[in-house]
Amino acid sequence: MLAQAEGAQARWTELTGISPVWLYDKNAGQWLGTAIEGAVGGYSLDFSLAFRGAPLEEGTPFYRDADAYFAEGGRQFVAPSWFVHASAEGGEAYSVYASLPALVLTFEEEAELVPLSRVLDVLRELAQEGLLRAVNRLTLGYGTFAVAEEEGDDALLTPVWAAKAEIYWDAQSEPYEAYGEVWRSEGTVYIDARTGALIEREWAQRWPEKE
After folding, report:
1. Which helix (H) or strand (E) holds 8?
2. 81 confidence band (pLDDT: 50, 70, 90)
3. Which residues, including other chains, have CB under 8 Å from residue 178's CB and lie 6 or more apart?
4. Closest CA to 148 of 96, 76, 57
């Protein structure tokens, strides 16, 4: 099934137990342990996605201005989400759900990218504003964007640097502790790999002209 999506690749990255089977002693009022030794319960399989060899990023880009995000209708045009999800029950029954892009039209065969130093300057600026606290991963790949005022499954893939980061809408916000854990704000900073500009829209204004 995955091979039918032209240009897209999915690679399994992690197996996570999500619902193991537990025994509960009603008389004693306590949990006893797993019902069966080994792989029982439900498990999810996570995949990393790529398009023509480059990582495929999806999700809402970080906005410096939260009010502008909602005022500009940031959630009005939602780009299609690309994903692969698989689940297994007891290691015997399993199901796979996939949504992968297929190439419809190429607007540019080649694109000149800005130096990495320009990208790092944008991240430094966010850090100096007190918004960016840590960058966990920086990836060059394709960002997925819907086109303004258009409906459907078509999306524009644009070369971007995607920084998975601890980032906040204002400099006063801080991590907080709850339920025995420290909670931090996480987001993805998108930077246009061709211009070095910070992308603060989750949709494109229009389709580009084909060269």
Report:
1. strand 8-19
2. low
3. none
4. 76
In angstroms, rounded to a whole number, what is the distance separating the alpha carbons of residues 143 and 79?
10
If you ran DSSP here, which 8-state letter would residue 59 be given?
Answer: S
Give the pLDDT confidence of 176-192 residue by residue, as tens digits.
887 777 888 888 999 99
Mean pLDDT for 136-158 is 80
φ and ψ of 142, to 5 deg = -105, 130
Beta carbons of 69 and 63 less than 8 angstroms apart: yes
Which residues are registered as beta bridge partners of 143? 158
What pLDDT shows up at residue 79? 52
* Helix then strand then coil, % of the chain, to nearest 5: 10, 45, 45
Structure tokens at 202: 């989750």
pTM of the entire predicted model: 0.72
Q: What does the alpha-carbon distance between residue 129 and residue 162 come to, in Å, rounded to a whole number? A: 19
